[in-house]
Amino acid sequence: MTRSPSPKPVEVSFEPLDNQRLARLCGSLDANLRQIESALDVAIARRGAQFTVRGEPAQAARAARALSGRPRGVPSPPSDLGCQPGRTAGPAPAVFNAANEVAVAAFLTGRVTFGGIPALIARTLDAHDPQPADSIARVIEADGWARSHTEEGCG
Description:
This protein is mainly alpha-helical. The protein has two domains: 10-68, Ribosomal Protein S8, Chain: A, domain 1, CATH 3.30.1370; 84-153, Rna Polymerase Sigma Factor, Chain: A (Orthogonal Bundle), CATH 1.10.1740. The chain contains six helices and three strands. A three-stranded antiparallel beta sheet has the order 1-3-2, with helices on one face. The longest helix has 18 residues, at 136-153. The two termini are 36 Å apart.
């Protein structure tokens, strides 16, 4: 008998860490997590603010939404991360865009968690040494640097 491979686990993390919210979510001795497991027939492993949900993909996704506190179709809270590069001079918008594209590709191939995308982008923006965007060549150079730097951060 051939076994089909186990579905890929869904990972959820709290960023930034909010210990009070985490304590309310998990409950005393993780009792609330056990209720989610029972109701959705999934297994939830927790280490600090990192959760791994295993089970049938649709049920694991429902559990992940419950853990993240966002129902389906409700976007995550707005972040200033994508706005800040546009407020600065130089090639920062191109650096942001390149880092975002690489980080999302890494998520889609399972190399980073969804919650890890903003952290990768922020690290790339923080490491970028802004130069004047006085030519298309400088913008292309910044784009290439950002792609390489972000890729290195994917592990």
